[in-house]
């Protein structure tokens, strides 16, 4: 069959079956090429793994998030469609994840239980090739990584509707772990129950953040149904799976996990409901070319203290994208500030600003420099 075998003119007069047959032949030939190229790529990854192992250096890293970010960014830039950037990124994420698994199996601890948005974030960032284990508390995720039982951890840090996750911020104060990456996940909330519809349902379970994200929709559609906050959306789904008079709000994963029917999809009040997650680990990540740096700074509670912290950033033209303050109860310092700044800690202007900040603050700790989320 020629390459042009199924062009409109070549297809004229053919039956639908014949036309489809021609295109399917082409798809089969393309799949054969993709398979062969995937095998070549996987063999390269095996070679990379051998070189890394052979280098004999302690702490050599198989997982290289900055390199992964560069690959995905480059391919996203080259993509001309018709597949959306998001799909191309997801496909190549899986390819890289499977290649990494040939080099080394890595384990990721996350805020569970199974079926939460954090689990979805783990696989959005690491693909399906990693091992993942759920833990009930944010502090448990930190502990697993600190103890070396898990290589990395994933925890939520902020939601565009619900705001900051203070447990995560506070835990950095007592931890020496680094931030190795960030994940942005669009959050779609769904109403789900055991039956095909909501008749007979008298209560709706969900995490309080999710209830908040759907507050207006719930007030419009189910003003008289009792809303019950529980520890996680997955727990809500579990409860709804055991009681036909209950429903739950959560992600598709939670519905799948507990075999519930989604009776109303995408019920969150804001179309741009996004949660940001952090990847935590033990190492510092080299620059990828488009990075963010997170700082933990403590200062005495005196007039103008915050202004003094911001001055060095302005002097060195650094963009601060986020700042959060938290009280520091057991110290004489007064406040901790968590800042996100565009750039990498190895950049010259960042180094100058950090040196000046150290002169102003009681404590300046770089929590990590890491590639910005790709999509
Ligand atoms: O370039 C490397 O260091 C690799 O290990 C290869 C590879 C890849 O498949 O492209 C795999 C895992 C790393 O996290 C980054 C990239």
From TrEMBL:
Keywords: Amino-acid biosynthesis, Aromatic amino acid biosynthesis, Cytoplasm, Isomerase, Lyase, Multifunctional enzyme, Phenylalanine biosynthesis. One of its GO terms (molecular function) is chorismate mutase activity. The keyword Cytoplasm applies. It comes from the Bacteria. Its main location: cytoplasm. Residues 107-282 form the Prephenate dehydratase domain. It holds the Pfam family ACT. InterPro entries: ACT-like_dom_sf, ACT_dom, Chor_mutase/pphenate_deHydtase, Chorismate_II_sf, CM_dom_sf, CM_II_prokaryot, G/b/e-P-prot_chorismate_mutase, Preph_deHydtase. It is found in: Cytoplasm. One of its GO terms (cellular component) is cytoplasm. Its EC number is 4.2.1.51, 5.4.99.5. The record marks 275 as: Essential for prephenate dehydratase activity. Pathway: Metabolic intermediate biosynthesis; prephenate biosynthesis; prephenate from chorismate: step 1/1; Amino-acid biosynthesis; L-phenylalanine biosynthesis; phenylpyruvate from prephenate: step 1/1. It catalyses: chorismate = prephenate; prephenate + H(+) = 3-phenylpyruvate + CO2 + H2O. GO terms for biological process: chorismate metabolic process; L-phenylalanine biosynthetic process. Residues 14-107 form the Chorismate mutase domain. Residues 294-371 form the ACT domain. NCBIfam families: CM_P2, PRK11898.1. Catalyzes the Claisen rearrangement of chorismate to prephenate and the decarboxylation/dehydration of prephenate to phenylpyruvate. This is Bifunctional chorismate mutase/prephenate dehydratase. It comes from Leucothrix arctica.
